[in-house]
Amino acid sequence: MRGLRRVTALLGILAMLTAPALAEDDENFDLTDLTVVVEEESLDEETPAPAAPGDALWDFPVAIGDIDPELIRLANKQSLLPKDYVPANLVKVPKDPAKGGIRWAVTPSDGKLKGQYLREECAEALCAMNAAMRAVGNFRDMYLKSAYRSYQKQKTMYHNRLAKNKGKDDGWVSMEGASDHQTGLGCDVVPKNWKDKAMNDKMMKEPECQWMAEHCQEYGFIIRYPADKQEITGIKTEPWHLRYVGIPVAAYIMENGLCLEEFHTQLAEAVERYLAAGGDPALVSGFTQGGAAE
User: Fold this and answer.
1) Which of 1, 25, 137, 176 would disulfide-bridge 155, Cβ 3.0–4.6 Å?
2) Domain range 81-245, its CATH number among 3.90.1150.10, 3.30.1380.10, 2.40.110.10, 3.20.20.190
3) Taking Cα atoms as reference points, which of 136, 137, 128, 139 lies closest to residue 97?
4) Cβ-Cβ contacts under 8 Å for 33 (sequence gap 6 or more)
5) Could you tell me the pTM of the whole model?
6) pLDDT tens digit string along 175-214?
7) Which range has the worst mean pLDDT, 30-39, 114-123, 180-189?
8) All structural domains of the chain with their residue ranges
9) Exposure of 99 by Cβ count < 10 A (0-12 exposed, 13-18 middle, 19+ buried)?
10) Which has the closest alpha carbon to 133: 143, 141, 125, 122?
């Protein structure tokens, strides 16, 4: 509209300047003889938003703003969580599928907590994924078998496992501080016919687990312990163990066949390049930590 008003004003001025000529020789006057210069502008076109600070220097496939340091936090033998680490915003996972929840295989007790707890964003994503699976049909109900575990709970489980195996760590139970469950972002999800059975890698053959491996990234999850990454993760294949990292990170990890340790290795290299190029350290604070794959 502003451009139109400018043209109208110019035509008005020109009309006043040429009024005598029109009176004297209006039959010979042709508006096409006038040259009107119009400044082109469009108020409908939005000015492109400036790039986020540091984006121009960031050369990693996942954008800086799509990486939450807490959601990608490692927990393994090289990167132990403190004994007093308790994740923020733990919530009890709803267990009624008819109301958007997911069934529980067991009702655990962990200190003052009784039931299955996860960080809120992880719980919401898990319930959304379960609802999607139920909508597909032809799948058995899925059960949440294990969610958040405290440092002390994991310590008890680990040492019970050692006692059962005559002191040998068989790679099925993580030591205290090294458990993905302590982050509040790791959860074991099993088909109905496995809810009362000891879990093993044969579960990979179940169609429900195959569906999770194919679609979990759409909800922000990865398969935390893939079959071909045992030497890196130090944990045997667990097709039931999901880890929430957020959708952009999950998509990158799953599409590229990585484990979380390998993602951290790549991310650390990207941070190093970014800082060497003059990037803002505050924007990548917390992105790197020990325990990444060598």
Assistant:
1) 176
2) 3.30.1380.10
3) 128
4) none
5) 0.81
6) 999 999 999 999 999 999 999 999 999 999 999 999 999 9
7) 30-39
8) 2-33, 81-245
9) exposed
10) 141
